[in-house]
Specification:
Number of helices: 10
Order of helices and strands: HHHHHHHHHH
Shape: globular
Largest sheet: none
Structural class: mainly alpha
Distance between the termini: 9 Å
Strand content: under 5%
Oligomer: single chain
């Protein structure tokens, strides 16, 4: 089973790359119109040091924004999950905020925190990724069976005890499901700031450099590097899910 979980995704990636290569070859596209996988290797070889440096810059700021989203989203989800009044009050605000295209927020944040490159990048990654976590925690807590709450209250348990003993284990599957979504959203937020408000850092800046110099293989190489980092972070979340919520896995 473990071998299958490694081999099947690997085979899918290989098939995707082969189909991509075949499409470019059949259509006869030059690399300044559509780069093929075979065009990416020279780009990685030429700029490998930049990929390492800027890939790390993108990765740590994405993780920082994601961790903030986990803390804030969990706290907000608890508030909404345990209080119907707060849930009714905050849901419209959250939905409205999430409906605003974050590409329009990036220039505002960049102007508000001029020169704070790391801070505003982490902030955008946080702003774009906390919503799924807050909603999942809120839904998990609001659907908690009232019998559990009544029993714990009769035993003198506080809200905090109810959360740690009953609510938290129950919401873990929903939490990790939302965290998988938030991982990709955090990368989107990081790269939005790196591209829209360039400051020479991160893979977004490397992509912008490729665009300025009409280096299309480099641009596509950056996209694949971003996809790779996203996949790595996604499977880290999957590993954490198996560790802390493996009991909820119904797959055979």
């Amino acid at each position: 089973m473990n071998a299958q979980k490694v081999l099947v995704p690997t085979a899918a990636v290989i098939v995707f790359l082969l189909l991509w290569e075949a499409l470019v070859w059949v259509m006869g596209w030059p690399n300044y119109k559509m780069a093929s996988p075979s065009d990416l290797l020279p780009a990685y070889e030429k700029h490998w040091s930049l990929f390492l440096i800027m890939g790390w810059q993108t990765l740590w700021r994405t993780i920082a924004g994601l961790l903030l989203a986990v803390v804030f989203g969990t706290a907000l989800g608890m508030v909404m999950g345990f209080s119907r009044t707060m849930r009714d009050a905050l849901y419209p605000l959250l939905v409205g905020f999430n409906a605003i295209p974050k590409a329009t927020v990036v220039p505002i944040v960049a102007l508000m925190f001029v020169g704070w490159h790391d801070f505003n990048t982490v902030l955008i990654a946080f702003m774009i990724s906390f919503f799924p976590i807050a909603v999942s925690i809120s839904l998990g807590l609001s659907t908690l069976e009232p019998e559990y709450r009544d029993i714990l209250r009769s035993l003198g348990a506080s809200q905090a005890t109810t959360f740690w003993k009953i609510a938290l284990p129950k919401t873990l599957p929903e939490f990790f499901g939302a965290l998988k979504v938030s991982v990709t959203l955090a990368f989107i937020g990081t790269n939005l700031m790196e591209i829209v408000s360039p400051h020479g850092r991160g893979l977004g800046a490397l992509f912008d450099s490729g665009k300025t110099n009409s280096d299309y293989p480099l641009m596509f190489a950056v996209l694949i590097a971003l996809a790779f980092l996203g996949i790595v972070l996604y499977y880290i979340v999957v590993a954490l899910e198996k560790t802390f919520a493996g009991w909820a896995d119904r797959s055979i």
